[in-house]
Write the structure tokens for this entry.
Amino acid sequence: MGYPANYRYTKEHEWVDAKDGVATIGITDYAQSELGDVVFVELPEAGKKLEKGKSFGTVESVKAVSEIYAPVSGEVLEANPELHDKPETINSDPHGAAWMVKIKLSNPAELEKLMDSGAYETYVAAKGKEASA
Amino acid sequence: MRYLPKSPAERQEMLAAIGAKSIEELFETIPEKYRLRDALKLPGPFSEAEIIDYFKQRAAENSLGYTSFLGAGVYQHLRSVITDTILLRGEFLTSYTPYQAEITQGTLQAIFEFQTLMCQLTGQEVANASMYDGATATTEAVLMAERLTGRGRVLVARSVHPEYREVLRTYAKNSGLHVQEIGYTKNGSVDVAAIKSALKDDVAAVVVQSPNFLGVLETLSGIADAAHGVGALLVVAIAEGISLGAVKPPAEADIVAMEAQSFGLPPSYGGPYAGVIASRDKFVRQMPGRLAGETTDTEGKRGFVLTLATREQHIRREKATSNICTNQALCALAATVHLTLLGKEGLREMAEQNLAKAQFALSELEKIPGVKRAFDGPFFNEFTLEFPRSVRIINGELLKEKIAGPLALGTAYPELTKHGLVCVTETTPRAEIERFAAAVKNILSKPL
């Protein structure tokens, strides 16, 4: 699965799609493949303020529970209501239907610090090598 | 004998793998003054005969030949030798952390059945594999409510077992949890008006016990509505599980914390106990401890596994739901066997006998001049009496008659120095109740 060129990425494997001051956030294809079958997602309610780098929810798979970290700061406008009943969407369509939250950016400059798709692909490839070394 | 013997070479290899020079280095973060440098002062070693003798002596310290009217969180009930026969089977008795699904289907099934029984008894949807005891279960229920609501204040009835409240205070002390106690009314039940006025939208949970520590059954619906009205949860603690044979299950509760000692565990030398946490299905991911789940294997056959273990300490480390990472498997098994033997009708009959005998004891004791019932709320197998003199003095005299008298409430409730909590179960013969009442009457008729 390719990594959309218009998204930005974090080292913790979240993606951000920012448009007109609103950022849509999810976890990457690499993240879902490492987690395995996702069975539960815990997301914040609208109005919650996220701080860059802080955990804002959890993803539970059959083998682990992982934190999801905010790639950028802002206030939650909406959490994806579909994920509660269909958490497996995270495995099937991580970059699309399985978006997790939409937030109103409080500091758009934070986007500049994130990786573009090329940099993220290189980062993930290096991780793959590390694992097989 | 070492549990896992390792050669010095293997130790070096392991240290090298994690990049440490010495074992000492692994403990660097512990300040020097807290390190143990001397050998532990332990007695022994003992021979087999000496060990058997030691335990015989300790066992002899249990009070034998006394008729007890003590309850207060620990109850005497009939139990069958079948329970012990099954408990003593090596497969159950000697296995430690018996949770590997591949080899311990029997244990996992027993735990699953325990959970099912606890749900049926408490009117809840999901129960865990058991906790240490009623006190830790109550505290864990509060912590669970704290996580679920994201709030840090809790209202606890003073009529909740004093030791349960003490364990809760110990946990709360350094964790930022604020515990506020709510008094009881003239009839011995929790002061619902006080709960309502203390309930704000920063309250995580209201904790009540039923039957409460004074023996009185609480009316839960009003408390549940008030708590839910501000988004708080209702935690119901139950110290005497047999009451559920006669009393409506606390289905209004969001979390039930129960002591399972009454189900086939004899009160011996202060234990053992088994705690229960049961709750609503939607809260299961914040439930502490272990859960056995039913599944199907690759051949489609029914099987059992530990489930939701991803939230436990060994996987999630400091972010785990709770520091509880085990359960009282053997005690939970005793409860399962005991309840299975009793069955639904048997449990009801046992509960009815408790009710009837406690009512009889009250009527006999109330005949004694100066002795009166302290609270008029409905009760199960325990009730509070007010005596014309100190309960301790009366108990001192009763002991000479080989009677363990009522619990002196003054220790936990300074305003109740002349009050005693009397417990009567199906194990208390009618003649002994009469002998007890006669002894109290006799003691009180003598000048001080």
The beta strands of chain A are 8-9, 14-19, 22-27, 38-42, 49-50, 55-61, 65-69, 74-79, 101-105. Chain A has one domain: 8-105. The mean pLDDT of chain A is 92.
